[in-house]
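Lay summary. Proteins are chains of building blocks that fold into shapes, and those shapes determine what they do. In this project we predict the shape from the chain. Here is one chain we studied, written as its sequence of building blocks.
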Amino acid sequence: MALQENFEKQGNWLFRYRGGLPIIFLVAGTAVYAYVAFNPDLFCLKRTPYEIYYEMGCFAVSLFGLAVRAYTVGYTPADTSGRNTATQVAERVNTVGIYSAVRHPLYLGNFLMWLGIAFLTGSFWFVIVFCLAFWLYYERIMFAEEQFLRKKFGQTYTDWANKTPAFIPNFKRFEKPDLPFSWKKVLKKEKNGLAALFLVFALLDILGGFIEKENKYNYFFLIGFIVSLIAYGILKYLKNKTTLLNEVGR
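And here is the predicted shape, written in a compact code that computers can read:
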């Protein structure tokens, strides 16, 4: 099989099962976090007054990644190349808004969300390994997506792709979105993201306190998780039992 077809086949498979990568990364990250907690000399800020500020900085990076995803989803119409699940779906190519600055903004958001968690481990080498793993994993997924769009939309897609960066945004090319921002779509599609972030940060914080035999916990993460979990339950009910979050064409 030619390398191009092989990459596309791998990308389609990884796209379909890409939900497994966060689990693998989370297990590995938890192990590294625990190892650093047992060996605080490996991280210069461990067990210092500045550790809390570092944790909040890591959370800010992850939260910024979630904001990138929310911004992207909030401006995309239905049935586009913006946010699909098991298979590739696109009735049009997104070329305005954030898609005028970068071709894969959702994956950029994913990267930043997980980068904050990688930083939280306190291991420089784990951050490097994470970046390399993310690149190798998502490079094939992006390749498969672009092959699908190129075959379906031809020159229209190629012209846009030739002038738009794949992963690092170029905001000099930014074009105003065609549609207004939709909070309803964001709440409907991204309702679990905030709760998941608070959960991960809260669990790692509790694990660190347990290993260090201290009862000093970051209650911001604990309270944030409880509040966001309640919000998730409400939004899930509204999505499944009502039409309140539905919008025509979104």
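What the prediction tells us: The first helix runs from residue 3 to 16.
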